[in-house]
Structure formats: C-alpha cells, structure tokens
Amino acid sequence: MAVSTTEPTGGIIICRGVHKWFGDYHVLKGADLTVQRGDVIVICGPSGSGKSTFIRTINRLEVHQRGTIIVDGIEMTNDVRNIAAIRQEIGMVFQQFNLFPHLKVLQNVTLGPVWVRRWPRDKAEKVARELLERVGIPEQADKYPAQLSGGQQQRVAIARALAMQPKIMLFDEPTSALDPEMIKEVLDVMRELAHSGMTMIVVTHEMGFAKEVADYIYFFDEGRIVEGNPPDEFFRNPREERTHLFLSQILTH
Amino acid sequence: MAVSKQELAPPRGETGLLGWMRKNLFSTWYSGLLTLLSLGVLYLFLRSAITWAVRTARWGVVTENLRLFMIGSYPPGQSWRPAACVLIVSCLLGLSWAIWGRAMRIFALGLGGMLGLLALFRFAMPTRLWLLANPVAVGVGYGLGLLLRRWRRAGMVALLAWLLGFGVTWVLLQGFRKAVGLPYVSMESSWGGLLLTFVLSIVGIILSFPIGVLLALGRRSDLPAVRFSSIFFIEVVRGVPLVTILFMANIMLPLFLPEQIRIERVVRAMVGMLLFSAAYTAENVRAGLQSIPEGQIEAAKAVGLKGSLITSLIVLPQALRLVIPANVGQFISLFKDTSLVAIIGLLDLLNIGRSVLSQPEFMGLQREVFAFVALIYGIFSYAMSYGSYRLEKALGLGER
Q1: What residue of B is the nearest CA neighbor of A82?
Q2: DSSP string over B258-320
Q3: Interface pTM (ipTM) of the complex?
Q4: Are A19 and A61 in contact (CB under 8 A)?
Q5: Which of A61, A62, A115, A153 should we substitute to test contact with B (largest number of B Cβ atoms within 10 Å)?
Q6: Model pTM?
Q7: What was the pLDDT predicted at B3?
C-alpha cells in the first residue's frame, strides 16, 4: 500500500524543507518539523505567516510542492491510497467547526466510522455517545448543529475527529471563532486529550494553554519555523528577535 | 418586591382576527385607506366575474364534455381503467400519509376530500360511486400504512409501493395487444385530456430530476470529456424553445433508432420534455452545489471520506435542499408546458378544450372552457407549490 521510507522512526510526523506557492506567492519557505508520538505541539505566529497552511499540508488539504512530509511512516505523495490512509489516522478540528448541518450531532460523529471504517451502526453509535460524554455534551446527541452554541459545536467537532480513533489530532485555531466564555470549555477538552497521551499539533493564540500543556512551542513566521522550545525556555528566553517581538505583542494584554 | 409569575392574557385586540387586521391592514391612516381602496377595486372586479360565472355562463360545455376533458378519447367502455388508476393513487397517498406524516396529509385529504365532495353533484351513479370510493381508498391506504409503520424500513416500502403503483397504472392504461380483458389502448390516438397531461408531467418530472442532478455533477467534473458533454447538452437544450424540441423529437427520434422500433408520439413527447426539464434542473442544482462552503468538503476529507461519498452524503443533501424552491418552480412550469404537445398533434387538457370549442354547438364559449382549464391547472400547480412549502418545513429549512 504505502511506500515506506527507509528511515527508522524519526518521529510520527517528519516534515523537511516543505515549500508551497499559491500561484506566485511563496507561502511556505522550507518548513521543518519533527513530532514524536505523544507530543503536544503548539504553533504560534503572526497572521499570514502560513501556519494554518502548514498544518493543512500534513493531511493534504493543501498540497506541498517541494520537500517531504512523512506521517506514520507513509510518505505524502499524489498517491490517492496514501492520502486516504493518512487521513484516517489524522483527525482535524477547524476554526469554523465545519459540522454537517443537515445531520444530527450523533450522525455527524458516526459518519466517519460507519462509512470509512465500515463499522456496524450500533458500534459506531455506542462509541459516538461515549465520545460525546467525554467532551461533556451527551444530551445534545439528537440535536442539529445549528441548535448548539459555538463551544458545544466545537466540542462536537472534536468528538467527530476522535471517532475515527486517529493517531494524531490537528487543531487549526480551534478557539478563534468562539466567544470568550466558551473558550475555556473547549480548552478543557483539549487539555484532557493531551493528558491522555494524544499526539496533537495545535495552531493557536492561547498562550496560557500552551504554557500549561505543550511539550514544544514553535514560532512560525514568514513561511518557516523560526524557533521552537519547551514552554519555559520559549517564554523566558526567546532567542530570535522576531519571536521576542511577537511575544511582547500578545503577552502584554 | 415579589415578582408575579402569573401569566397575564394579552390585551384584547392584539390577537386573533381583529388583531391581525388591525396590525396589518389598518395600522396607520393611509394603510387603512389603501385597504379600503383595494377592497373596492376587488369588489368591482369580482362582482362582474362572479355574476358572469353564476348567471350568464353556460357551463354545459364543460359538463357535457367532462369525459373528454378528463381522459380524452379513451374508449368509453374502458374508462374504468383510468378510474382505477386514480383509486390506486388515492390509496398510495393514504399510505404515504401514514408513513411520512403530516407533510402528506394535505394531499391525501385534499384528493380524497375533493373527489368525495364532487360526488354530491349530479353525475351518473357509477361515477358517483367511484368518486366516493376514493376517500375510502385513502382510508384503506392509511390503515395499511399504520400497520407498516412499525417496521424500520417503512419509508423504503412506501417508495417501492409508489414505484409498483406507477408500473401497474402504466400497464392498466395501456393494456396488452393480445391479452383478454385488458385490450390495448393506443397512446397515440386515445390518451388525451387531463390523463395525458398527468402522464407527460409525472414521467417528465420524475425522470428529469435524476438526469438533471447527474448533468449538474457532470458539469463540475474533473474529467474533460464528461464536463464538455454536460455543458454542450445543457447549453444546446437551453438555447432552443420547448416547442422546437418537441417538434424535433417527433421528427428526429425515429431517425436515431432502427426501423423495427417504432416509438409512439407520446413517448417522443415525453423524451423531449424530459431532456428540456433536465437541462434547467441541472443549472438549478449547480447553483446549489456551488453554494456549499468549501469547509464542508474539507471536513469530509479530514474524516477520511472519498469523492463520491462526499458528494452523496454531504454535498448533494445540502445542495438539493437549497434548491427545492427553484426545482419545484421548474416542475410547475413543466406541468403547464405539456400543453405545447399540440404541436405534434397530441390533445392534452388545454387542446381538448380548444377542440371542444371547434364543435358547432359550443362555439363562442371560450370563457367557460378556458376558465375551467385554468382552474384545473391552478389547483394542481398550487398543490405542487404547497407541497414544496411543506417539504421545506419538514426539512427545517429557514429555521436551522
């Protein structure tokens, strides 16, 4: 099925020299990243730096034009089977939730397992209800997404991603579209997920969350990773000028 | 201070008919004036219309030719067959009401009630019995539906029942060349009137919808061959008036098929209407497909779904719901466009009316005939329109 690289396990995600252009615009300028299983990685940086584009190349929602991306030993190429196989192992949570409005909450969560993993409906529903319980909204199972608040919708989105039992979870600014009072409930779920050992890559501005939960924080600017460190180092001793500037902008308020 | 939880009644004159009138018709002085003015104009128009309808109109032209209007020149001895088809439809409507709920109730009760009420008129005894049998058939269907409802697959059974029903009505109406008891009734020469209008519309609507959806998907396809064929078909068909398409279907379809296969004119007309409606439906559906946010597709991909599953589970259900108003409008147009089959010599409801008028004893009675025909078209068009509204409500559109 997959063209396995000859490299030993250097990490569950290995990105090397990833370049991407949107037409003439060079958005990713050689990003490098290695993620070990169980790591919680936070990527922060100014808007327009390409960080969302970068994590979207990991599950091929964006196609990189140069460089290598290897996920769980499978290299990301144009081979459709590789892409499908990788996507099943990666769950993604979007800034705009992207729940399916014509399906009930429970159906949103069971869709993947039933149609992709081919589970019988009973098993899928059981797992779905457990996940909804885990994210704290078991009673909303039979409602439609539009009837839920933003925080509840995002938690359903997290449950939906978890239903596929992925090895990696990607979060693309999961709390940026939420009202302040709902941010906490989503971060709580993410915190619990991190403590349970899930490999997570989170693009976010929530530095409090990063300080508490992250194993590494990476600063992304102008298409590449400028520096990365464990949280203590990162906040106390930013090595690059740009990192310093960014931190001073977001930490002062 | 204690907060009273007692519910107070709203002030009088705010609710009910009086309240509605006060708010909507008489809210300000000029609004009130306009209301009175409109009522006056309405009265003047309607007074002459109603006087005409009740006093001077000679409705004999309608009542004496009722069979012609309803089933055209279908052999009188065989008119039990279209009657049986209507009974089957009544029964199926009752079944659908039980299985699909409130949305179908108005149709089941509407048809049953209307036909039942018509039994009060002075028709011949067999006709009146048949008219009364329809509400009974609705009841029977409803009962059957209640029994089937326990089943989880009840919806599928209902759909199958309808498919079966269509098959049976088709066979019933046409008959067989060699069978006893069900002699062949040629579509060419005998089907006419409202029967023909319904046959053309129903087949046209039901078949043009899936073809239209396929065309819309084809137009957005990545494969160049599929894309260009779809675009070509849609643009060519949309560039030609329906009359021309019917005319060409009549003349050209025999050219495309081998000598032995002879297609009846009615079928040629069906094919023409089908293709015409499919092209317009395709564009309606494409509008819906375009308006689905990219994020939906991305979320589906992120969960691991692939191309055709994404389209059928995520994109199409949302897109089709969005374009229900446009599509039902297209169906209503199709229903009325069936009158154009006059161009190939078929006599549908409207054209039967015209041929009735050409008879010497009924000359000059255009108003009565066309008023009647307009009423029939109006009733069924409104039924479709109302059906669209109920469907949208059932799907929760505009609410969630």
Answers
A1: B304
A2: -TT----HHHHHHHHHHHHHHHHHHHHHHHHHHTS-HHHHHHHHHHT--HHHIIIIIIHHHHH
A3: 0.90
A4: no
A5: A115
A6: 0.83
A7: 62
